[in-house]
Every structure is written in structure tokens, then in C-alpha cells.
Amino acid sequence: MPEVIVPIGPHHPALKEPVNFRVIADGEKIVRLELDLSYNHRGIEKAAEQRDFIRVLPLLERVCGICSHSHSSAFAKGIEEIMQIEIPPRAQYIRTIIAELERMHSHLLWLGVAAHEIGFNTLFMWTWRDRELVQDTLEEMSGNRVHYGMNEVGGVRCDLTPHQVSTALERLPFLEERIYQYVDMVNDQQTLLLRFKGVGKLTREEVLKYGAVGPTARASGVDYDARRDDPYFVYTEVPWNVVTDTNGDVYGRTCVRIGELRESANIVRYCLENLPKGPVRVNAPKIAPEGEIFSRYEAPRGELAHFIRTNGTNKVERVDIRTPTLANWTSVAMCLVDQNLADIPVIVAAIDPCLSCTSRITLINTPGGKPGIVTFDELRKRGQTYCQEQGPP
Amino acid sequence: MTGLLPGLVYVFLFPGFIFLVMYALFFESLDRKITARMQNRVGPPIVQPFADFIKMLGKEVIDVDGVDRKIFDAAPVVALAAVMTAFLYVPVLGVSPFGFQGDLVLVLYLLTIPTVVLFIMGWLSRNIFSSIGGVRVITQMFIYEVPFFLALLTPALMAGTWSISEIMLWQQQNMWFMILQPIGFIVALIGLQAKLERPPFDIPEAETEIVAGPWTELTGRRLALMHLVKDVSLVTGCALITALFLGGPVLPWAVTPAWLGIIAGFCIFVVKTLALLLVLSSIKVATGRIRIDQLNTIGWKYIASASLLQVAIVLIINYRWVST
Questions:
Q1: Residue B44 CA to chain centroid, in angstroms?
Q2: pLDDT surpassing 80 at residue B106
Q3: Cβ-Cβ contacts under 8 Å, A126 against chain B
């Protein structure tokens, strides 16, 4: 076959969120790839500047439906540092528990999605069933399954009762048993190995060059984890290891994520067993002093960064969110070249993309018909000319 | 066949057209139910495929711009006719009344027609996903067809006849070919799975890669008929392997009266085809989708070699023991 353009997205069964790839393929081989990420610009950063700190947390939680706790934690952690308040240890522990449970449900979800991308629906159904256990635990603790709303500036919203702690601890052994079964499955299942091994390979140098983060980077042997290298919450007190792998392909990323599942289960158990007593919240001031902070947080998908600037009022002057997906996109575009057409879904899924969280600009057709970025000034001028043409009302 | 009326009943009523359609749709619902239970789901109700079929027959047919409508309307019918004809030569109630020397070859070629039709539809759809799917269909056919044919022809080699019914009777007197030719049986199952484009060979309709492959532009009754073709192919394939490897729908001893034997044979047919369906569904559940280049390697390196080995073994046995 000659070179053909295969349009994937913005609507495609493999994609859960809108993104557009224009894959230029020679038969079944990929020659080149053109990406368009921004279909879901929601103006969330601008909206965050309009709200005070109490109301900005629920908003930022809605950046993502999977790593909702990550966004609110990253922001709360940053703003607390600017305000120079220390949150009580019990609140730290609860935040860590929720964060690791979130990592577990995110990785289980990812494993299912990756299996679905290679048509292995059984694993997809099984992991999503087991994910329900984690979701149930989260729902019991916070009352919600998706947006837990646990974070507040100065602590957490609600305390854990002894009953919640004991039921969560009861669920862990079964969950760990299932995780070990997935380890076996990933190592033994032949079709899975055929589709995962050697696919979407990234060397350590490439990862550093393109700035990939999270499990994608750790699968290529980059030993970096914000939880250890820029510690927050109680990660310095809890015994745990950074999981790395040297394969660098989709298989390596799977191994890293399954390893992290085990680590997360251990962290949750440790935190539940060693939950300190005391209050879960301190009264935070309404106004933050002038300052800038770069708050790093290890979300399930990789390093999440919130840049926060305050100006002495009860609102942020600027909050800039760099999601891990944005950091990982370049590496995807690079490692897709020369791969098989059939491998696109699984390579893209391997970074666990969260596209709507990543959208920061939106592309609009100019009169010439070419896509481009419309700046605010341009938009203003256009409005002025439009009004002038219309004449007075 | 003794008269015109029994012949017409056989072709149109039982076990031909009407029964076959019902049985095929029932097969699909059972397949989905088995899959769902293994995947820890509830699964659709048993009547779901019947309801889907009737609903889709009544849906609007959307024509793609610049596509030859006549070919698009005719193609599913041709495919359906081919697999339904193939079923007439496969023994269901004792031996097939239409059987003749060489019907095995005819059945194999009739079973290939849906694949070719699918390729043509994919290619004509003028849709990039359909075109890629169509190319994959034909590529995959070149990979599995040779081992599949070889595997199904080895029973004929040993039985010394080209008639499916006679191969079945040979097994009644001797032994099932599943035991005599285990390699051929396994290759035949793999080939059938690949022919029906079920996981791990659902490469041409890989949902996450190329939407629905050649099926992408099918709507309304075309889609309904193509689904039916797939279900009927599943039944015909299972029935064919039952007849060739599992001794077919006959008891190993003679039963009187004759009608009792036929009823018992029909029950055996149902049990054996359902057992095969269970095996095929288990393969479907236990695997992911492999890539077309990987299938090429596996198919020609291992599956084709295995079928050739089976042929060689049969030829040696024939030369050494049977012919003398």
C-alpha cells in the first residue's frame, strides 16, 4: 500500500478522551505522526484565579477524574507552604492514605485499559472488578468515589473512624493477592508478552532528553520519584521503595506500575496501622502573603507540578498546572515512529494519558482556514472591529 | 434423498435455513454468555442476538458516497448463501443426504467466500479503516488458510475418501480422528478461530486500532446479515470439525428403530458443537490480540509446519499399515 493518512480521533473507539493523531503510515508501519491535543480547554486556570482558596480546591480537584486528589494535594501543599502553616500529622497520614489508594485505583484502571487496547478484555474486566474494592474503600473514607474532596487548606475535611480503618485493612490482603495474580499474568500470558515486549522502546537518554516523567521514565531506568526526591506528606517516615525497570518498553511500564501497586498497598497498610492521634485540621488564614511556590507532587501518572503565585489577597494571582501527560507526550510521538500501526493504542495508553487535564490552549480556525493560536489582543481587536461594523445598537 | 418434499424440508426448515439461523443466533448468545461469565460479567440475555438481528434488519441502510450500492447489498447475501450451502453438506442427522465424493473440498471453498466478501466490502467502503481492515482480512486469510485446509484434509487422507459423511462413517468403525490426529485437530481449531476472526485473531476488526475494520461502513440489514454470516460460519465450522474429528452426529453402534438413532445423533451433534464452542470461547477469553506480523511468523513457522507434520505422519501410517 502507498503512504496513507490514518486519522485517529478526535472520536475513536480506542480513545476515551478527545485527541487527534494524524498517522502517516506506509502499509502497517508508521512514518510520521501529527498531534493535536487541545480539544477540551476548560479555562480552569483562569477560573482558579477568580476564587478564594477554600473554593479553589474543589475546582482544581475537577481538573482530572482519576488523579483528583493529586491536584488538590499539590495545590494545598503549595499554598500551605506560602502561608507557612504546618498541618497536623494525622492529616498528613490521611492525605497519604488517600493518595496511595488513588494511585492503586489509577494503576488498576490503567492495567485494564492497556489490556483492552490489545484486545485482552478478560484482564480489563478483572482489574476493573478489583478496582471496585479500592473505590469502595475511598467511598467509605470520603463519601465519594471520584472527587473525594478530602483536602482543605490546613488539613483534611474529615477524620477516619476506627471502623473505616479496620475495614480498609481487611480489604488489603485480598487486593494484594489479586495484585500478585496480575504479576503472574503479565509474566506468563503469551499474547500479552507478544504485544508488550519491545514495543514503544525508550532508552534512558531519550527519556531524559524528552523529559518524560513517572512510570514512563522509571521503566527506562530513570530513578526519580518526587515522593522520595522532593518529599512531602509522610513519605519520609513510611518504608517504601521506588520501583524502576530497565526494559524501557510497554512491558517495563507495566512492571513498574504493578510494582507500584504493591508498594502502594504496603504504604496504605503502614499508614493505617500507624495512624497518629490528634486533630485533622488547623485553622488556616484566609489571606496568603505574597509569594511564589513550585509545588511538585507524584501523581499516579508521574510528576505533577503546580506553580502558584499569590499577591497578598485571598485569591491566587496565577496558578499554572503542568500535568504529567504533557511531559510524556513528546516521548510518545518519538517512540511511535517506525512502529506498527497496530501498536499505536497500546503505546499511547502506556503513558496513561489524561488528555482533558492537559489541554491549556485551544485552536480556532482563522478566516484563512488555517489552525492557529488566537491571542487575547487579537480576540479583542476582532471584537472591536465586529462591533464597529455592526454600528451602534 | 427420496423425494422433493423431504429435500425441501431439509434445505429450508430443518436442519437447513430456519433451524440453522436459530441455532446460529443461539450459538452467539451462548458464546457471549460464556465469555461474560468467564470475565466476571453477567452478560446479555439469551434472546439478545435475536433481538439485535430483528432490530438491525429494520434499521436505515446508509450508503457511503461513491460506493456501488448493488455490490454492497449483494455481498452479505452471497456470503450468507455460501455458508448456508456449506452447512447442507455437513452431517447433522446421520449422513448428509446431499453428500458426494469431494464435498469436503466444496465446503472448504464455500467457507472461504465470507472472508473474500469481507475483503471486498472493506476495500469498496472508501474508508481508511475499512481498507486497512480489508487488507488485513486477506493477509490473515493467506496465513491461516493453508494450515486449516491441510488439517481438515488429513482425515480424508487416512479415511481414503473425499466425502465428509464417509469420513464420519469411517470414524464410526474405527476411531475418532481427534485421537488419531491430535496435531491436525489442534491446528483445525486454531484455523477455525482465525477464520472466524475471534481473539487472538481478531486483527482485521481490531476495535481499538481500526474501529471495526471492514465492518465500519456496514449499517442496517447489511450489518445484520454479516453478523448472521459470522454466526452461521461458527456453527458450520464447529459442525465440520465435529464431523471430521469428533466422529460426527452418529452413535458408534446401530440403533433400532432408525428414527431413534437420528434423534440420538442430533443430540450428539448439539452436545459436540457446544463442546467445541466452549473450547473456542475459552481461547477467546484467555488471549489478547496479536499483531498481523506476529501472526505471519507464528502461522507460517509453527502452525503450517505442524499441519505438514500431521500430513507426513498420516502418509507414513497409510503407507505402512492401511494400504497394505
A1: 23
A2: yes
A3: 39-40
Q: Does residue A28 form part of some domain? A: no
**C-alpha dihedral sign at B200, B203, B204, B209:** positive
> What's the number of domains chain A is made of?
2
Same domain, A271 and A382: no
Does a structural domain hold residue B8? no
Give B289's contacts in chain A (Cβ within 8 Å): 118-120, 191, 195
Classify residue B213 by its DSSP letter.
G
Residues in chain B: 324
All residues at 6 or more sequence positions from A265 whose CB lies less than 8 Å from its CB, including other chains: A100, A104, A172, A175, A176, A179
Domain count, chain B: 1
Residues A386 and A346 in one domain: no
Domain extent at residue B81: 63-322
Measure the CA–CA gap between A391 and B53, rounded to whole angstroms: 60
Within a domain: residue B54?
Answer: no
pLDDT band at residue B324 under the 50/70/90 scheme: very low
Q: Is residue B47 part of a domain?
A: no
Task: Answer yes or no: do A370 and A290 share one domain.
Answer: no
Distance of CA A391 to the CA centre of its chain: 48
- In this structure, are A292 and A373 located in the same domain? no
Phi/psi at B98 (5° precision): -100, 0
Whether residues A119 and B289 touch (CB distance < 8 A) is answered with yes
Which member of B38, B285, B291 has the closest CB to residue A195?
Answer: B291
A392 with A351, same domain: the answer is no
Domain boundaries, position A105:
44-358
Distance from CA of B72 to the nearest CA of A (A): 23
Q: Where are the alpha helices (DSSP H) in B43-90?
A: 48-57, 69-88
All 3 cell numbers of residue A157? 475535611
**Minimum-distance CB partner of B200 among A14, A191, A342:** A191
Joined together, the cell numbers standing for residue A338 give 517506525
Cα of B261 to nearest chain A Cα, Å? 41
State the pLDDT at residue B77: 92
State whether A28 and B211 contact (CB < 8 Å): no
Q: Using a cut of 0.80, tell me whether the model's pTM lies above it.
A: yes
Flag if B40 and A129 touch (Cβ within 8 Å): yes
Residues A370 and A353 in one domain: no
Helix (H, G, I), strand (E, B) or coil at B141: helix
pLDDT of B253 higher than 80: no
**What are the angstrom distances between the C-alpha of A229 and each of A303, A322, B249, B255?**
11, 18, 70, 81
Q: Which candidate from B40, B128, B290 shows the least CB-CB separation from A194? A: B290
B28/B203 Cα distance (integer angstroms) = 20
Grouping H, G, I as helix, E, B as strand and the rest as coil, residue A8 is strand
**Is B111 within the bounds of a domain?**
yes
> What is the tens place of the pLDDT at every residue in B173-229?
888 888 888 898 999 999 999 988 888 888 888 877 778 888 888 888 889 999 999
